Amino acid sequence: MRLHEGEPFKKVYGPVFAYLNSVSRVHDSEQVLWSDAVLQLSEEINRWPYDFPKSEDFVPANERGRVEGRLLVQDRHIKGGKFVYGHNAYIGLALPGDVGSWERQSKGYQFWSRADKVGNFTIENIVPGDYNLYAWIPGIFGDYKYNTTITITPGCIIQLGSLIYNPPRNGPTVWEIGIPDRSAAEFHVPNPYPNLINRLYIGKPLHNFRQYGLWNRYNELYPNEDLTYNVDVSDYSRDWFYAQVPRKIGNNTFQPTAWEIKFHLPFVMRGNYTLRLALASATRSNLVVRFNNPVARPPHFSTGLIGQDNAVARHGIHGLYWPYSVEVRSNVLVEGANTIYLRQPKVISPFQAIMYDYIRLERPEA
Length: 366
What we know:
With 366 residues, the chain is mostly beta strands. The chain has helices at 29-47, 217-221, 236-239; strands at 65-73, 84-85, 90-94, 111-114, 120-126, 129-136, 144-152, 157-165, 173-178, 228-230, 247-250, 253-255, 257-265, 272-285, 288-291, 301-302, 306-308, 322-329, 336-344, 354-362. Helix content is 8%, strand content 35%.
């Protein structure tokens, strides 16, 4: 957060609820305690916002507003351009800003909800003020923003009707890697070191990434050469390491890594191809992209130095979202075998890493 000279700032954090429970029986005590806590959680959610705070800055329920609507997606290369539902979309109100700016805001309040299976959503208990509506949809590349400012007044109910998201798209998909869900969880997360296992996560495959020291497994899986992924035969759940980390070559000495994506084009179309590149996390990294020439100067694309979320060091699977759309001139591609080089040259620490969310190559329209 950054405050200018003389800028006033005030924000309510809380109330904070702490729940302590106990059980007399030893058998299955953890499950009994957990189930009881989940039940209490649902009760507290139904009571929110609480009616007991006396602070004049805590807005009671009867002075808050509500927004309702439906989110649909239209992509001319998904189901022939027909509308599809914004299934399980994350939809929220935050301070007015650019597309995706909600992720880096901290001064204002945010109010979020999830759409149902047909895209219907309700955002409740919104503090009065001016907002933009933002959204992102698991399985769909990019961010949505409703371009009209929404003003919430005490007790209001705003019905937005159907909103249409047209995600970034320049042409048909040639190939794709991963799932656009802002997480690297679908990629290969290696087994933990036996002496470092956190037993809390044993038997919970969705939490494998929470184990300590997984980044060091990269050297063992790729001892001599960096990761190479062939889109025709490779499986991203098995062959794409969950994070592009530096290679350790000595005590506190590291080497840049350069991953390769290999693909075949039966012919090259005139016009520009597009590389959709979404990062789930970046920590003081610079992703440099080259096509068919690992030493091209200048590179075909570079993110510049980005990221400070430390997701690898914190045993996370995502941080801030970084979506990029890279124009690829057809003259850098060739008929037959092609290679994309993904290099991360910043290697002062082992945690200067990138987690990929999703990569897609689009060809020009016919």
